[in-house]
Design brief:
61% helix; two-stranded antiparallel sheet; 277 residues; mainly alpha; globular; 13 helices
């Protein structure tokens, strides 16, 4: 038993209340992210990541989960760029917040306006660029826009850029940090110069090294996961997120279910637990 075999087993687990396995969902997400990247190559800013940016603004990067859900529902029927018009933006925010005199409402209005204005300018710039320059410029400038115009943090930026098909962006959150530490992956693959378990970059670097070394034989849509650490992050999320209204396994959540974990034979925490029982 090794990590590659364990991840194969995780991928084949069926999500609660769904007919789909983790692999099914990851394959679909992967294809959606590649479509976003193709749009960039065509000289267009993909709209799904823009919707996500607006959702992050309104929900404070997902911390207000109920607002995240509400925003996503509202944006299904809207072209995000229509929110550049004041009347459309105010109508949208009225539907999201219900009240229009709050500080949060005004802050969201300002950030969405400047975010979408910058997105429009980037979209115009991409059209004028040679095709071989579009991906690099988009990655650099869209990240800057997310940080400076939408005021989205590092993890949120990595999440959105990963969803744009830039799979070296790894949105490290509490689930991945817990997983990397609990399994012992971080301890094995962190370098001496990047070994702080509280440091975002050190955790991401350990993740990249782990994928390259351990997941060469595990494939998604025929491509080895060793080349796609951002997608491995998503597998870990489905595996570790607590079972809520969102489809997730909750096996390596705050309260680990080691007895049903496909990684229990290689996970440092699980091995130690069984050793003392």
């Amino acid at each position: 038993m090794n990590f590659a075999e364990g991840f194969e087993r995780i991928s084949n687990l069926r999500l609660p209340g769904k007919k789909e396995t983790v692999r099914d969902v990851i394959n679909r997400d992967f294809n959606d992210f590649l479509k976003n990247k193709e749009r960039v190559k065509e000289g267009k800013v993909p709209m799904q990541p823009v919707r996500m940016g607006i959702s992050f603004i309104c929900s404070r990067s997902g911390r207000w989960a109920y607002l995240d859900t509400k925003v996503r529902e509202q944006l299904k029927e809207r072209n995000p760029m229509d929110l550049l018009r004041d009347d459309e933006l105010e109508s949208f925010l009225d539907d999201v917040y219900a009240r229009c005199d709050t500080r949060v409402y005004k802050d969201a209005k300002k950030k969405i306006s400047q975010f979408l204005g910058a997105v429009k300018n980037l979209n115009d710039k991409l059209k004028r660029l040679p095709e071989n320059e579009r991906l690099k410029i988009f990655e650099e400038e869209f990240e800057k826009i997310l940080k400076t115009k939408a005021n989205i943090g590092r993890k949120g930026c990595d999440n959105i850029l990963r969803d744009c098909g830039f799979f070296d962006h790894i949105p490290v959150d509490i689930h991945e940090r817990r997983f990397l530490l609990r399994t012992g992956i971080f301890h094995k693959y962190a370098s001496p110069k990047a070994s702080d378990p509280t440091d975002y970059d050190d955790l991401a670097k350990a993740m990249v090294s782990f994928c390259k070394e351990e997941l060469k034989e595990v494939k998604i849509n025929g491509r080895p996961l060793s080349n796609f650490p951002g997608m491995v992050d998503l597998i870990i999320w489905y595996f570790s997120q607590k079972r809520t209204e969102q489809p997730s396994l909750g096996i390596c959540s705050k309260d680990p279910q080691c007895e049903e974990c496909p990684l229990k034979d290689v996970c440092f925490f699980a091995i130690q637990q069984y050793k003392h029982t």
